[in-house]
Amino acid sequence: MNVYSDINCIKGVGPKTKKLLEECGINTIMDLLIYFPRDYKQFTNCISFKEGKDKEEIILRATVKDIKKDVRTKNGKNISTIIFSNEEENIKCKWFNQSYIKNSFVLNEEYTLKGKINIYKGEKILLNPKVIKSTPINENESIEPIYSLKEGLKNTTISKLIAEALNNIEVEENLPKWILEKHSFISLDKAIRNIHFPENKALLYEGRKRLKYQELFTYSLKTNMLKSVRNNNKGISFNISSSLNDLKKQLPFDLTNAQSKALREILTDQKKDIIMNRLVQGDVGSGKTIIAIISSFNVIMNGYQVAFMAPTEILAHQHYEETTKILKNFNLNIKLLCGSTTSKEKEIIKKEIKEGTVHMVIGTHALLEDNVEFNNLGFVITDEQHRFGVMQRSKLINKGKKVDSLVMTATPIPRTLSLYLFGDLDVSVIDELPPGRQKINTYFIKSSEKERAYSFALKQINEGRQVYIVCPLVEDNESLDLTSVENLYEEVKKYFNEIPISILHGKMPPKEKNNIMDLFKKGEIKVLISTTVIEVGVNVPNATLMIIENAQRFGLAQLHQLRGRVGRGDKKSYCILIGEIKSDITKRRMESIVNSNDGFFIAEQDFKLRGGGEIFGFKQHGEEEFILSNIIDDIELFKSANEDAKSLWESNNLLDKNIINYILNKLDRDSRYICFN
Ligand code: ADP
Ligand code: MG
């Protein structure tokens, strides 16, 4: 067995478990080892049951005194009761629907129990406690890892499999010695063991730190690599086409100064014979798409093809529509390629791309597929960059030779962070909104005042406008997300009677999503209830009200992006945040979004106010490169990882060069923990 062995070489993995594991993305031992707990349960080591509070999780040792007869409740539940005792008191334990539980206990034997205190009608019980096998209470038994699970898969199963794998494997160290020493890191093997089975809190912390560093270091190596590849290769030198003037004359609006400046920077890059690698950062609604279209046009006029990739089908459609509209008089062959494109159409489009008759293709991840081959790719644009990993970006770039690359993001990233995050990119900023945009009036109300928001929504609809309602996001759990949209739908339906409402969520087939978005765009749907699917880029100027439920759960930057879905036309727009304020930080966060419409300011605030894990929403964005680390909280670690990666990359030390080669050879295999052996 080694880390690349198939998961079924572990004892106890039959076809059924294998399938469940595969659904969690676990195919090999390595996948299993880096399936890190999403959280840990902390148990209070409590000897005194008496002092335990309601809902507190405790561990205690006690002896079985009495095993009661099972009772059946009116609604058919089976309750088993066992009375335990220790020196001080009696402890009543109850289990629901586990009649077999009695068989695991013997009268007068002592057990270590772990469970939750429950006080019901004045009676204090331990509910559904579990027995811990080993006799003494160790410190490690009070930290229990919790894994993200798919239905049918138990937490204990994952734990057991990992334990079994770690019994057979020692994970080889993969960082150079000088890095380990510099940071006093524990070994990779020890880190992996402790993240799954913490010996104690301190080692859990050390383990997590080591592995967080691993992510950030790997990421930084990649950006360093991309940067040097680019600097060492000559790019295409595009001419500035005279047709650009014709296009500019036909634009439906004048570019803002900020747009013109960004466009100039891009065209200057295009003209140079080095490879362009530029990031356009611009607040929501600042008009990035038009910049992408104009610069694409210049590349097409030079006889090269353009690929424009968006993170969702909805966005790809939208870009496609806007592009074909803007370029309609130039007789260009522009195609849309998405997952939901029929296979027959796909074949035709791919053939045309390969033959070079397609000038520009707009699409989703579908563009990354191996069989999408270009005749003469010259320019790649990725929208909302943080949704795509660095490696995905380079995959598209590699479909051409010396391709220029432009990435666009609406997430205003504080300067310090963008230095590490986009170390390989030059940055243009569009810090101005098109004229005539009004401030989006933003309000915060408590959940108990919800009805006010809905009656305001009705008023807007009666005036012919449309409304978004965004639902609380449930982290890491798509099926829960789904229930929360559906519940919200049931809840708000009654306020809107005959008005057409629809749900939109991530689990819908893309066709259905597009369909609903189309109806919403056409104004046939008045209220759209959705998860954060709509967060990025969607443009429906007639929507003037955004209601966000459980607003305190979102990162500020994310709230700002959501809010940016309204205020896209010339009509006064509003955003109502509904939520609960339980801490001072939450209060200040909500204040900064209510009081400001400036994405960059908000991002800085978010950065400063960072309160426990509710920041920025990078994880929610699916930035797969960072599983453990939070690039905001771990900024210092990110900084040193970046410095280390840079000096490793630039070093002339042969040993270090070997490490780099080794890492590069593994890049395709696993982008995150590439340096496993
Ligand atoms: P984002 O930067 O969020 O991607 P978009 O490119 O979707 O923004 O632009 C938002 C809206 O503003 C679009 O409807 C677009 O046509 C419009 N727009 C872009 N630039 C200008 C401009 N200079 N003047 C007026 N409207 C503009
Ligand atoms: Mg956009």
Automatic annotation (TrEMBL):
Q: Which UniProt keywords apply?
A: ATP-binding, DNA damage, DNA recombination, DNA repair, DNA-binding, Helicase, Hydrolase, Isomerase, Nucleotide-binding
Question: Record's SMART domains?
Answer: DEXDc (SM00487), HELICc (SM00490)
- By its UniProt entry, which Pfam families does this protein fall under? DEAD, Helicase_C, RecG_wedge
Looking up InterPro entries in the UniProt record yields: ATP-dep_DNA_helicase_RecG, DEAD/DEAH_box_helicase_dom, Helicase_ATP-bd, Helicase_C-like, NA-bd_OB-fold, P-loop_NTPase, RecG/Mfd, RecG_wedge
- Known EC number(s)? 5.6.2.4
Entries under PANTHER family matching the protein: ATP-DEPENDENT DNA HELICASE HOMOLOG RECG, CHLOROPLASTIC (PTHR47964:SF1)
For this entry, the protein name equals: ATP-dependent DNA helicase RecG
Task: Specify the species.
Answer: Clostridium malenominatum
Gene name as annotated: recG
